[in-house]
Design a protein that fits this description.
This protein is an alpha/beta fold and 208 residues long. The protein has helices at 5-11, 14-32, 50-57, 71-81, 98-102, 124-134, 148-151, 154-159, 170-179, and strands at residues 40-44, 63-68, 88-92, 109-115, 135-146, 183-190, 195-201. The chain is globular, with a radius of gyration of 16 Å. Bound molecules: S-adenosylmethionine (SAM). Residues 1-3, 11, 44-47, 50-51, 67-70, 73, 94-96, 115-117, 120-121 line the site of S-adenosylmethionine. InterPro entries: Methyltransf_25 (IPR041698), SAM-dependent_MTases_sf (IPR029063).
Amino acid sequence: MLMNKVETALVNSPPRRWLQRFYETQVLLRFGGRVLPGARALEIGCGSGYGSQLVLERFGAARVDAVDLDRAMIERAGRRLARYGDRVRLAHGSATDLRAALDADDGGYDAVFDFGIVHHIPDWPAAIAEVARVLAPGGRFYFEEVTAHALARPIYQRLFDHPTGNRFTAERFLVELAQHGLVVLGSVTRIRGDYLLGVAAKPVPDSE
Ligand SMILES: C[S@@+](CC[C@H](N)C(=O)[O-])C[C@H]1O[C@@H](n2cnc3c(N)ncnc32)[C@H](O)[C@@H]1O
């Protein structure tokens, strides 16, 4: 589900960008560290591309592919990220079908980033399944999510558009990660369970 005008303005506002750069990034780095040199990263629901900029500059990815369901956001991201040249590839499509959007192979990415997008997807478990599929063994999933607690608040209901059913709590989100074989390295909730930040890893299979 796409953002409405109010959410678009809020998500792209200077306070949110400040929070993302100076708080969320620090928490995610504490749990998951920087990616390995040469890492290929994916950002799902990239919006206007600020997260992909952080993925390159702060998390240390060599390249980032970024996908969003909203063509207008992809255009904005294209303008923001043009300076990175062929280190960035943008695609229109859904995080629930990364093969269609990006021709993404199994295990094709060393890291996947979710800056507040999975709660926009009605079939959000399908997006988690895709994250688990495209991560390479040893790869990491960095997530920042808005939970059912926040979405139920009157202010959220009045101002924003989100799927009305199949919402997740922080606990339910973490259970879904485990069901897809992802091991949580660290996570934290904020504002009475409204927000969830964390990092999960796809285990490397034991060698025989
Ligand atoms: C709250 S915004 C976050 C945008 C960006 N990650 C940021 O932090 O600025 C959610 C984004 O998810 C996108 N989105 C919604 N459903 C999607 C889907 N199924 N696949 C990919 N992107 C989706 C929206 O178009 C929107 O850009």
